[in-house]
Structure formats: structure tokens, C-alpha cells
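Deliverable D5.2: sample structural annotation.
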Amino acid sequence: MADPAREALGAAAAPEPPPAGSSPSAAGDGAALGEAAATEGAGEGEVGEAGGGSELKAEVADGEVRSAEGEAADAEDLGLQACAARKVKLELKERKEKKQKVDEDEIQKMQILVSSFSEEQLNRYEMYRRSAFPKAAIKRLIQSITGTSVSQNVVIAMSGISKVFVGEVVEEALDVCEKWGELPPLQPKHMREAVRRLKARGQIPNSKYKKIIFH
């Protein structure tokens, strides 16, 4: 007599028969579709990789172009700077040569003028060249006016300017003496009149402080 439990276990373990409508060709078609999908996925991956590689190459090429443009711009800037430096150097050289030529002309003119002096004029010119204001006195005067210490170059410059100023006043005083029909030596009235005339012509600045009141 058969055991009902064993028959139930055997029926469960037995494989299910394929459906009536299925056939071996349908199974083959499913496998072909899977292989086609896999091939398509692999193709898309290759296309993606190819696209990524082309974009990377394009970026690299763009970077190289930009680098080349930057190098060209730097080279152009360097060329312009070199041209400007050469131009400045040539201008300085021309100025130096021109100044040297002017100095030589001045020296030559002065030599011609001195050679035409009389003995009295030559003695006066030598005394003028030797005369100078004491630099210590000039320095004290500048410091008393400005309230600050000054360098030796400033003292030398002011000493030379003072000498030129005194020479102009003396020249004007000699003209005053001659116009008044008088003979040297110069007197204080000649000097005062010379200063007055120079002030009237604007050659001496007015040192008096004027308070301006606005209404």
C-alpha cells in the first residue's frame, strides 16, 4: 500500500513541465536578446569613453592654445619694454651730448670774453670769482628762518643764489649812479634806489606779510 506523504513529497520535488506554448527556439531568442543588450551596453560604454577622451583632448588643446597666447603676449610685452628702454637710453645720450656741446660753447664764449677784458676789468672779474658768502652764516640764516637743519648742498646753492642776487643789485646801483650823473664808489642811496627799481620790476619778491581780510 502506497504512503500518501511520500507521494506528495515526490510530486513537489519533480520539475514542472514547460508550458505548452514554449519551444527551444523561444529560449534561444531570449539568449540572443540578452547578448544584444549586453553588446549595446558595451558599445554605449565605449562611446562614452570615446566622448570623454575627446573632451579631455579638446580641453588640453585649449589649454595649450591659451598657454601659447600667454607666452606670445609676454614676449610682446618684453619686446615693448626693451624698445622703451632703448629709446630712453638714446634720449639720455642725446641730452648728454647736447649739454656737453652747450657747455663747450659757453666755455669758448667765456674765454673770448675774458681775453677781451682790460686789466681793470680782469681784476674786477677775478675778485668777483673769488668772492663768496660764508657758508656758516648762510646756514645759520636758513635755519633761523625755516626752523630746521639743512644739508650742505642746500647751503652751497643758497650761497650761489645770494651771490647772483647781490651782483644784480650792484649792477642796478651802478646804472642809477650813472643816470644821476655821479661817479663811483657806490653809496647807500644808490643801493636803495636799485632795490626799489628791482622791486618795481618784480625781480625781488615782497617779503612783507600782508593780512587779507575778506568782507
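Annotation notes: The helical segments are 4-13, 24-115, 119-130, 135-146, 152-179, 188-200. The first helix runs from residue 4 to 13.
The annotation will be released with the project's public dataset once the embargo ends.
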